[in-house]
Write a structure and sequence with these properties.
Layout (H helix, E strand, L loop, with lengths): L7 E2 L2 E2 H7 L6 E3 L12 H8 L6 E5 L8 E4 L4 H5 L6 E5 L7 H8 L9 E9 L14 E7 L2 E8 L22 E5 L4 E4 L3 E7 L4 E8 L4 H13 L22 H14 L2 H12 L16 H10 L3 E4 L5 E5 L5 E5 L2 E5 L4 H10 L1 E3 L10 H12 L3 E4 L2
Antiparallel strand pairs: 1-2, 3-11, 4-5, 4-6, 6-7, 7-13, 8-11, 8-13, 9-10, 9-12, 14-18, 14-19, 15-16, 16-17
Helix pairs in contact: 5-7
Bound molecules: succinic acid and cobalt (II) ion.
Length: about 400
C-alpha cells in the first residue's frame, strides 16, 4: 500500500506537466490516472450528502438557466426521492475527509506541496445535467469517474466578467468556446485558475472527481497574517511620533515611514512561517470529532513488536512542517504548532511526507523516546491511526 505521489499523468511526466501546463493552459490527458473501480458508490455519496458536517448541493436544471434551483445540503431523503423529469447534479465537497479510498486518491496529487492540495469534490449527474458555465479561482483537475461528460473550455475571466442574475449560482453571462472534449473514465482535464468551463453529462450516470487546490488570496494572506501577529503583540505598544508635518492637517512622510517600519518589523521568516504553517493546516471541518481511543506507551510498543498493519494520517487532517535552527522542526497540524525536538524529526518527516508508514518500518523511526511521545500525542488527538492497510 502506498500513497506515493503520481510520477506521470497519462503519457506526460509530472515534470513535463508542471513545466508546460500548470497555471498556464488547460490540457486534456487521456487515461491520465488509473483507478480500478469507482472511488465511491453513488448511494454512499448520496448518504454523505445527508450528513450535517458534509458540504453538498443539488442543482436542478429545469427550464431556463436563471430558473435553475440549488438545494443546499445537508440534503434529506425527500430530496433524493423526488421524481425529476429534468437533469440534476449532486455535488459533494471534501469527500476525502470522510472516505479513506478517496483520501488515498487525493494523496496522489502531492506531487505539489500538500498544503496546496485542497479537497476532492465528487459530482453525480444525470444525462444532460451540468452546473453551467463558470470559472473557479483555483487550479482544478476534472477526472471522469464513471460515464461520459462533455467539457467545453472558454475564455479567461476576472472579477469584472459579467454574471447572470442568479441568487445561488455564479454563472457566466458569456461563454466564448475555445475547445471541447468528451471525457471517459480515467481521462482528466486540467483547468488553470480563472478559465471558463462548462460540463454536460453525456450518460445516464456521470460521475466527476474534481481535485481542487488552495491558493489564498493576497487579501487573505494580509488579514490572516495580521490577525495572527496581533495576538502576540501587547496592546501597551503604541505608535510613536516621528516628527510633525508643518501643517496640522497633514500626515507626515515620517509618520508613514514609522508605520511601515512597524509593519516590516513583523515580517520575519519565523513569524511568516509560524503564521503560514498554522493557517495552511487549519482544519477543513473544525467540528469533526476525530478522537481515537487513547493509547499508552506499552500498547504502542506491542503494536510495533507485532509489526503488522500501517500507521495512517486521519482523513481530513492537514500536516506540514518547517525546520528550526536547532535541528528540530515545527509540525503544524490542524492549525496548531507543535515543536519537535531533533530526536523526533525522522518520524515526523516520514509521516508528514508519506501520510502512511508500514508498522514494520516504524521501529527505526521511533527508537528515541521523543519520537514515540510525538506519535502518541498525534495518535491520541486523532490525527493518526493504525489500520490493517
Ligand atoms: C462538476 O463536477 O459538475 C463541476 C465541477 C467544476 O466545474 O468545477
Ligand atoms: Co469548475
Amino acid at each position: 500500500m502506498t500513497m506515493a505521489p503520481l510520477t506521470h499523468l497519462g503519457e506526460l511526466t509530472v515534470g513535463e506537466f508542471l513545466a508546460d501546463y500548470w497555471q498556464q493552459k488547460p490540457v486534456c490527458i487521456r487515461k491520465g490516472i488509473a483507478f480500478q473501480e469507482a472511488l465511491i458508490a453513488v448511494d454512499e455519496l448520496a448518504g454523505l450528502a445527508l450528513e450535517p458536517e458534509v458540504e453538498s448541493r443539488l442543482i436542478e436544471n429545469r427550464g431556463d438557466l436563471k430558473d435553475w434551483q440549488v438545494i443546499h445540503g445537508p440534503l434529506t431523503e425527500d430530496d433524493f426521492n423526488k421524481e425529476r423529469d429534468f437533469p440534476w447534479t449532486l455535488l459533494v465537497q471534501g469527500v476525502d475527509c470522510f472516505v479513506p479510498e478517496v483520501h488515498d486518491f487525493l494523496a496522489k496529487f502531492r506531487f505539489l506541496p500538500s498544503w496546496r492540495v485542497d479537497d476532492l469534490m465528487i459530482s453525480y449527474a444525470t444525462k444532460g445535467a451540468g452546473v453551467g458555465a463558470h470559472y473557479d479561482r483555483y487550479d482544478v483537475f476534472l477526472i471522469q469517474g464513471e460515464g461520459q461528460r462533455q467539457w467545453q473550455i472558454g475564455q479567461t475571466c476576472n472579477e469584472n466578467s459579467a454574471l447572470m442574475a442568479h441568487d445561488h449560482l455564479s454563472l457566466l453571462a458569456d461563454f466564448e468556446l475555445s475547445e471541447e472534449f468528451i471525457l471517459n473514465p480515467g481521462d482528466m482535464l486540467y483547468i488553470p485558475p480563472l478559465l471558463a468551463h462548462k460540463g454536460v453529462a453525456m450518460s445516464d450516470v456521470c460521475v466527476t472527481y474534481s481535485v481542487g487546490f488552495r491558493s489564498p488570496s493576497h487579501g487573505d494572506v494580509l488579514t490572516t497574517f495580521a490577525d495572527e501577529r496581533s495576538m502576540d503583540i501587547s496592546a501597551d505598544l503604541r505608535i510613536k511620533d516621528h516628527g510633525f508635518a508643518a501643517n496640522s492637517g497633514e500626515i507626515s512622510a515620517a509618520d508613514v515611514e514609522g508605520l511601515m517600519q512597524l509593519m516590516r518589523d513583523q515580517i520575519t521568516p519565523e513569524n511568516v512561517a509560524q503564521w503560514f504553517g498554522k493557517h495552511s493546516t487549519e482544519a477543513k471541518h473544525p467540528g469533526l470529532d476525530m478522537a481515537e481511543e487513547a493509547m499508552d506507551l506499552a500498547e504502542l510498543d506491542s503494536i510495533i513488536n507485532d509489526a503488522y498493519g500501517v500507521l495512517r494520517v486521519s482523513e481530513g487532517v492537514r500536516l506540514a512542517y518547517t525546520w528550526q535552527g536547532d535541528g528540530g522542526l515545527t509540525l503544524f497540524v490542524q492549525g496548531d504548532a507543535l515543536p519537535c525536538p531533533p530526536d523526533a524529526t525522522a518520524f515526523v518527516e516520514a509521516i508528514a511526507n508519506q501520510w502512511l508508514i508500514a508498522v514494520d518500518e516504524l521501529d527505526p523511526l521511533v527508537k528515541k523516546d521523543a519520537a514515540k511521545a510525538m506519535l502518541l500525542i498525534l495518535h491520541n488527538q486523532g490525527y493518526l491511526y493504525f489500520a490493517d492497510e
